[in-house]
Amino acid sequence: MTGDRVQGDGGSGDGWRTEVCRDGAEFGRLGERWASLYARCSTATPFQSHSWLHSWWVSYGRPGALRVVLVRREDGELVAAAPLMRARGPLPVLTQLGGAITDFTDVLLDDACPGAAAALADALAGVARGAVIDLREVRPGASAEQVFARWRGPRRRLRDSLCLELPAQPMDALLARIPTGKAQQRVRAKLRKLDALGIDERIVPGDEVPAALDRLLRLHRLQWQGRNVTAEHTSDRFAQHLARAVRPMVEGGDARVTEFRLGGDVVAADLTLMSPRLAGGYLYGADPELRARKVDVATMLLRHGAREAGASGRAVLSLLRGNEPYKRHWRPETVPNQRLMLTGRGTAPLLWLRAGAADGRRWAARQARERAWVGRVVERLPGRPRGGGG
């Protein structure tokens, strides 16, 4: 293993071997061991799978920045892992792999190894000497919370992105969440229109995933042509990341690609990521012709996602990050991600500085949203002049 090795004790009487992987090729060779630990960590989401993280590193990683912290038992079995890297910028910061295209980040802990969290906390304390560990987008209940609880030095918990979630229930139950009868009737009319058009749904097998992803990304670009879009989703490196990561995730049950066909043509495609507890719609593309025909693509995808998530025994259909109005239409539960910051006593000022800057950015963003909301309200006041100069 390329990296540092430290012998330690996790606090439960077991001996641990701590390693820090700094080499991307070596990280790639961890796939089998990582997959075994991933399967034994009940809080893990597909964003913690080796396929996702290693592929992300290949597309987005920087030479010399990798810091994957591993904890093994004396027999060599991997019982804890924290996929980290050295962040850009003037301050010494370690942050998670996955970057901005990852909705949930976490560490991995073996459920059957009660000392793993304390052992990983000790290992991270050794790695973080002189640096701040900054974990973004940590979902409530994640394994990282166990490490946070056992941290002996300065720490800080902040709110991060907002996620919206629905129960994985049949469409009739989801319709009941809509508050008014008229709104429910409008959705039922949209569903009848979908059925009348005869749009077929097909789940793509693993060997067809690469071609299906090409079609999905092409439809995504068409769908957002001339409108604001997440620029990274149109980049070559993002396409290459998905091409490497998604096929093994589909074959391992961590992802599903669905195509929607009309008259034999693929008119929409969806990528959903799946863990034992939840399914989350990650990315979709739709032919603009559907919008021209007044097809409600969001409703089509939601019905399919709810049906598949419920049939597979998952309890939650996550709409992932974002507070878009079309999501709010379904009265979802609000589940804010967390930002966990950890450091040693000697570097506490760095933590307070970084946390203060994060608080300031959140405050400024909230003020901007409130000003925009007030502006829209004022524009709608009766008698308010519209257009023209002042």
Would you mind describing this structure in some detail?
This protein has 390 residues and is α+β, with helices and mostly antiparallel strands. The model is unreliable at 6-13, 372-382 and 384-390 (pLDDT under 50). The chain is built from 13 helices and 14 strands. Strands 1, 2, 3, 4, 5, 6, 7, 8, 9, 10, 11, 12, 13 and 14 form a 14-stranded mixed sheet that branches. It has helices at 24-29, 31-39, 50-60, 116-127, 144-149, 171-175, 181-197, 209-223, 236-251, 288-292, 297-311, 325-328, 348-379; strands at 3-9, 15-21, 66-73, 78-86, 93-96, 108-109, 132-138, 155-167, 200-203, 255-262, 265-274, 278-286, 316-321, 333-343.
Concise synopsis of the structure shown:
By secondary structure, the protein is an alpha+beta fold. It is 39% helix and 27% strand.
Spans of 5+ residues with little confidence (pLDDT < 50)? Answer: 6-13, 372-382, 384-390
DSSP summary, beta strand count: 14
SSE order = EEHHHEEEEHEHEHHEHHEEEHHEHEH
Main sheet specs: 14 strands, mixed
Count of helices? 13
Binned, the helix content reads 25-40%
Distance between the termini: 68 Å
β-strand percent reads 25-35%
User: What gyration radius follows from the Cα positions, in whole Å?
Assistant: 23 Å
Give descriptors for this structure:
14-stranded mixed β-sheet; 13 helices; 39% helix; disordered C terminus; 14 strands; 390 residues; single chain; 27% strand
